[in-house]
Prior knowledge:
By secondary structure, the chain is of the alpha/beta class. It is about 25% helix and about 25% strand. The protein folds into two domains: about 1-110 and about 235-295, FAD/NAD(P)-binding domain (3-Layer(bba) Sandwich); about 110-230, FAD/NAD(P)-binding domain (3-Layer(bba) Sandwich).
Amino acid sequence: MSDIIIVGAGCAGLTAAIYAARAGKSVTILENEGVGGQISTSPRVENYPGFKSISGMEFSDKLFEQACDLGAELELARAESIEKNAEGFTVKTEFGDYPARAVILATGCRHRRLELPEEERFVGKGLSYCAVCDGAFFKGKTVAVVGGGSAALQSALMLAEICEKVYLIHRRDTYRAEEKLVEQVGAAANLEPVLNATVSSLNGTDSLESVTVAVNGGRSEIKTDGLFVCIGQQADNAAFASLVALDENGYIVAGEDCRTSCEGVFAAGDCRTKQVRQLTTAAADGAVAALAACRV
Ligand SMILES: Cc1cc2nc3c(=O)[nH]c(=O)nc-3n(C[C@H](O)[C@H](O)[C@H](O)COP(=O)(O)OP(=O)(O)OC[C@H]3O[C@@H](n4cnc5c(N)ncnc54)[C@H](O)[C@@H]3O)c2cc1C
């Protein structure tokens, strides 16, 4: 039996592993895909304190190495369900059962994709899902934002402060965002709404050069250096719904203390209900959840 099982080897899970292992606990990390989580697909991270610039892969490798050196063990397996019992919990995977006294869920989330054929090829080459993360790379350039919710409008407004021109592409004729943001978008001189429009293709050779949008039955091309896809995020915690409370979007309900509705189970990082989903906040949660789990 491990003292603590951590589900997910992203920034939150690996930080939790570092804290728990340093506290002398036996730690098993279960990871479904590859170590590092979302950030391993990012070519450059420039907003994590202490690193002026680092690739997402190198960042993940460093975290993983640190966790392993401290004694945390990784098992490549998907946590399919969790049972509570007298000793603690049993995390079930297709390769077997993992018992533990406490569990930290650090399953992250995913940005919704446009589901266009060229999408994967342009990630990090003009295409981004996070203006806070990558906006600074487009200073003085032309960018487009896709989406019509508050997050998309906030991203467009943030980008309008540093970019020469921002297109805001939205599939309806009205936004689903806070009224104040809609007013600010209307007032921004360098922000051009492209309404009733959907992106139908991404174009470019080595990096993104333009997007084709379908508008009112026709098609037009928008030349742009970058495209920010802000059409929401998805959390996949259905497997744990009988153990912990989820909100309407599938995020695990937990506050700054990372405690869930089930005693002994903690949620850290992007998978929990929160406002800011970034590496720093994931790392902070990892520390908070681990220290709480050490006390179980
Ligand atoms: C392209 C890109 C660029 C970004 N750039 C930045 C940036 O510059 N700065 C910044 O601060 N943030 C950035 N972010 C956001 C940042 O990556 C996330 O906030 C951070 O990764 C969240 O960490 P996490 O550990 O909570 O989740 P994740 O990184 O999503 O990790 C969760 C892990 O859990 C695993 N998992 C899920 N379910 C299961 C299961 N049932 N069993 C086992 N394993 C499971 C997943 O495979 C994954 O590895 C970026 C995100 C993307 C996509």
